Amino acid sequence: MRIGILTAGGDCPGLNAVIRSVVHRAVVGHGDEVIGFE
Fold first, then answer.
1. What are 1-38's pLDDT values in tens digits?
2. What are the angstrom distances between the C-alpha of 1 and each of 4, 16, 17, 34, 35?
3. What pTM was estimated for this model as a whole?
4. Do residues 13 and 5 make contact, with C-beta atoms less than 8 angstroms apart?
5. What are phi and psi of 14, to 5 degrees?
6. How far apart are CA 15 and CA 21, in angstroms?
7. 28 phi and psi, to 5 degrees?
8. Contact 34, 26 (CB under 8 A)
């Protein structure tokens, strides 16, 4: 499965940690592919 994460782009405390955790869980835990886009 391919997963994309879309954010509003503003400052938000903890957003980097959340994105890092989601990517880690998707790739390591489930073998999914995470794509980045602007």
1. 999 988 887 888 999 999 999 999 999 999 999 988 77
2. 10, 22, 22, 8, 11
3. 0.73
4. no
5. 85, 0
6. 10
7. -75, -45
8. yes
Q: Tokens at residue 27, please?
A: 């790739």
What span, in angstroms and rounded, lies between the C-alpha atoms of 16 and 31?
21
Q: Give the pLDDT confidence score for residue 11 in this predicted structure.
A: 84
Overall number of domains in the chain: 1
Range of the domain at 7: 2-35
Q: How far is CA 29 from CA 7, 22, 25, 34, in A?
A: 23, 10, 5, 12
**Residue 1 DSSP symbol:** -
